[in-house]
Design a protein that fits this description.
mainly alpha; 8 helices; Serine Threonine Protein Phosphatase 5, Tetratricopeptide repeat; about 180 residues
């Protein structure tokens, strides 16, 4: 495998200073080689010593994505943003996670923040346009005859039962005897 020599080099560097920050590149090499358990174990141990190491959190988040654990990945990338609120990779990964989860409005929010941090990012601008389009298609639509979905209880609210109209004919009342 092509990663073997790189992994060996990184393992040697990490062995020389196991308390340093060399764990993140090694963990990333393990991740790329498909050794997710080793990568995750190394990230967890290293982040205990270096909890503010943004690059290590990014590697850890990518491991979570590779494991198909998007909830954990989202938590990790949110942590990245607490450490670096304009981290372009953290913002992009959160937008991707939201889009895969069909949470297009959330993806729009992350991509808007990404473009605020990196206004010349053409890929993010294209992704934002796509996410806005998907969000618009996923938005609730007003029933026929309504201009827009109304508040709860309004006959134009999607799925709401229609209230009887004040103008609708009423059933005749039964006659009562006063005798």
């Amino acid at each position: 495998m092509a990663y073997t020599s790189e992994i060996e080099k990184l393992e040697k560097r990490w062995a020389e200073n196991p308390k340093g920050r060399n764990f993140a590149p090694l963990a990333d090499a393990y991740r790329k080689a498909g050794e997710l358990d080793r990568a995750i174990e190394l990230c967890k141990a290293g982040l205990e010593r270096h909890p503010d190491y943004v690059s290590a959190h990014i590697v850890f988040g990518r491991c979570m994505i590779d494991q198909k654990n998007e909830a954990a990945a989202s938590d990790v990338f949110r942590k990245v943003l607490t450490l670096d609120p304009e981290n372009v990779l953290g913002l992009k990964m959160l937008a991707d996670i939201a889009e895969r989860g069909k949470r297009y409005d959330e993806a729009v929010e992350w991509l808007s923040r990404l473009l605020s941090a990196d206004p010349m990012n053409g890929d993010a601008a294209e992704a934002l346009a796509r996410a806005k389009g998907k969000a618009a298609l996923a938005a609730p639509r007003a029933p026929r005859g309504c201009r827009a979905p109304g508040p709860q209880g309004d006959p134009c609210t999607l799925g709401a039962p229609r209230a009887p109209s004040a103008l609708a004919p009423r059933a005749p009342r039964a006659a009562t005897s006063n005798a």
